Amino acid sequence: INFWDIRTMRAYKVLEAPKVSLTAMAVHNCAPIIATGSSERFIQISTLSGNLLGDVIRYREGFMGQRIGPITSLSFHPYKTLLAAGTSDNVVSIYCTVDH
Q: What is the pTM of this model?
């Protein structure tokens, strides 16, 4: 993922993305975090320096497993550390930090 400075038309930061096709991405307005989602049914949250935050959110099988479909959209709350994820099976999930 390249972050471009439109004044100089040069990439000022490059982050390594998952090796699958990304279908959604969101950058938080206040916190230095980025979320990427894939049609492979997972969400990855990392810092802008590229460090992974926590576990990858992914599809789980089973009765108590978290079920998410292919990710189509991601959006952070403007000020809080809340992430909304939309999937192709018409479900919206909200994720937050443990202390929220």
A: 0.81
Side chain identity at 30, as an amino acid letter?
C
What is residue 56's predicted lDDT score, i.e. its pLDDT?
86
Find where tokens 């997972």 sit: 42
Q: Pick from 37, 52, 48: which is nearest to 85 by CA?
A: 37
Q: Give me the amino acid identity at 44.
A: Q
Structural tokens at position 88:
């192709």
**Of 52, 85, 54, nearest in space to 69 by CA:** 85
SS3 letters for 24-90? EEEECCCCCEEEEEECCCEEEEEECCCCECCCCEECCCCCCCCCCCCEEEEEECCCCCEEEEEECCC
Whether residue 41 contacts residue 68, with contact meaning beta carbons closer than 8 Å, is answered with yes
Tokens (6 digits) for 63: 């009765």
Over the stretch 32-78, which tens digit does the pLDDT of each residue have?
Answer: 999 999 999 999 999 988 888 888 888 766 666 567 889 999 999 99
